[in-house]
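1st attempt posting a full record on here, be nice pls
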Amino acid sequence: MENEERDIIERLGAATLQLERTLSLLEERQGAGEVERISATVEQGRREAELSEKLAAAEREIAELKASTLTGLSLEQRIAVKSQLMRAGAIA
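the predicted structure (as tokens):
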């Protein structure tokens, strides 16, 4: 039992030492402004991912709307609508 307790105490001591080293390193980096840059990069990555998801959803919705709009039109009307959309750059 005492051996187990000693092992636990030694591991806790080693973990404490490692955490203190890590804290010191982070404090040095924060003083140099490095931590703020890392945080800004992570936030920017999250924002880009959110915007990509929103863009994909908007593109799907536009495609669905185009498809449903064209089904109720005659052939000539569909051709006219597609021509206008192509001129506007909305479709390729």
